[in-house]
Amino acid sequence: MFDLNDRQTQILKSVIEEYIETAGPVGSETLDKKYNLGVSPATIRNEMVNLTKMGLLKQSHVSSGRTPTPIALKYYINQLMEEKELGVTEEVAVKERVWDNRNQVDILLQEITRSLAEKTGVLAITTTNQGKIYHSGYANILDIPEFYDIDVTKTVLTIIEDFKRMDEFFSQDDSEEIVHALMGDDFGLELLEPCSLVFTNFNLKDKIKGSLGVIGPCRLNYSHIIPTLKYFGSLLNEISQSI
After folding, report:
1. pLDDT tens string 152-163
2. Centroid of chain to Cα 128
3. Which CATH superfamily, name and number, covers 88-242?
4. Rounded Cα gap, residues 63 and 98, in angstroms
5. Measured in whole angstroms, how far is the alpha carbon of residue 166 from the centre of its chain?
6. Which fold has domain 6-80?
7. Are 135 and 160 in contact (CB under 8 A)?
């Protein structure tokens, strides 16, 4: 997709990971101090200018640092990110929590959604082709700077009650990836541009198909959230084989 040299790749990865951690624009001085890039702040600045021209970084104000664009975040997910899988103990704890509800679909999906919200620290949502919708983790997003904007938060909370709209979002990415990510203008709504929806699909009892995902800021901790979603999706598919 992008022909980046090693230095540009390292700088872009560092900008994204700093942005995910801090929610603020990232400057060359910060990268120089924290990321041991092996080049001068002036060189870092020049490369950040080049990455901006490529559409991977953006600058809100002349004097500010830069933030990654949605294109850069997707590139990070697909090319640069190192997944941090759930530990065995965590996987077992989730499985034990939901397994006994495997024959009661409503309770199972409520517990799965609640567990996902707890594990990811954002808003979790599940829909099925039966027209059912489950969500958990409202309080999680209230501590996230992007949701201090009441209009953004109201839009998200309204959307997750709207099965038709959520189904449209979950159907938008038809790639063969296990986990899909929508962000920025993928939603077609200006107030959702600071947000990201990451989701996976599942089958349950043959007749029930659904999607399970999380909604949060564009700077979600993808290296943790994506493998977590993969595990939750595989757990639902495993449960499907047992009932």
Report:
1. 999 999 999 999
2. 20
3. GAF domain (3.30.450.40)
4. 50
5. 16
6. Arc Repressor Mutant, subunit A (1.10.10)
7. yes
